[in-house]
Amino acid sequence: MLSPRFLLLRSAVSLSCRSFCSGGASKPGRAPDMIEGNPLLHVSNVRNRLREIVGASTNWSDHQQAMADRVSLSSMLAKSQQDLPARRMKDSYLEVHLPLGSEPQLREKYLTFHNTVRFGRILEDLDSLAVLISYSHTYNSALKRSPLSIVTALVDKIDMRHHVIYPDCDIKFSGRVTWVGRTSIEAKMHMSQYRDGAYAPVLDATFVMVARDPENKRAAFVNPLKADGPEEEKLLQEGEANKSRRVELSTASLLKVAPTDDERKIIHSLFLNTLDTNTVSFRSRVLPPNSVWMEDAKLKGLEICHPQERNIFNRIFGGFLMRKAYELGWANACSYGGCRPNLVAVDDILFQKPVEIGSLLLLSSQVCYTQGKYIQVRVHSEVFDPLTRQHNTTNVFHYTFISDRDVPNIIPKTYGESMLYLDGKRHFNQTVEP
Q1: pTM (2 decimals)?
Q2: Residue 120: pLDDT above 70?
């Protein structure tokens, strides 16, 4: 039996779904459920629904008043997690359709000039869906608006199960809450594409969201989660394991502790391979054959953060940041490998600070590790204040790409670059099986 929340979402968009799905003969990339007009949530309605839940204004000129009105919702927050009813995984389950096969006008937004799908747009959709799934888990039918501010804290992992996303075939996103802490939520999502008469899996994604008060200043409690059956119990256990892994990785960060013995041997071996045999000097370095100095594998960009890219809380939309970082990272991998690379995985995207409207956002991508055909790219984003001249890190992104040929070896020269190399190797080992 579907939850009241899901029925509400389905009925709210049934008319719009029927209007674009009805009529016409079946096409190879057009799924039957889209043709028959099943009332499933259209991708364009996700952010509209989020605005309704939060009470956000669609006009930038009204944003200050809309946010001021949310302050009064603080009294609706739970004093403890025990005050909130437990929810099931199916209560937050959502399906969202991206009808690339049946809406040519929508398709234009997702196309590259090579007639492939812009993966950065997919990242935006996943981010919006993760927020809506989290609100579905915390939904209170007695309230007209949610007092919670739910934002993305971390993209734990995105695994590509199929490298090709067809530009003229319908896409279906599905997802649900699979683990909760006291104030955090893990949402697992799946993306599939309709082709040759069936939906085929494309990617699996895990996002971690956090709940805050209406002013987004302090943490807020979320509904506990209960499992129905062994399958859901397994998902809960995986969520706990994911949390433990994240804590362990944070504790072992190269920004906090020294490299392991094996890692130190790797760095020293790289150093020895770059010594000039003629001078045998620590200061004389020579680039080995088929190699590139790390300092020569950078690509940078700047974004002026306009109101058009704001989220429902009037800060820059996390999906927009992910899209811009991905496209810069892809361009760097393309330049480095000399061909169009395919994405293998997205790993450990950390949202450290929100990006305010009007900010100058500096993006810097760095090829930090290579192995065979694989290219590991790290993208660092920071906000620059031209008045104070201060830089503040907002996000760090990690992408693993694969080329159609072996790529040059990336070689660090300084100690700082060596740490980037080891960090990239760690992320590579987490996402690609040996």
Answers
A1: 0.85
A2: yes
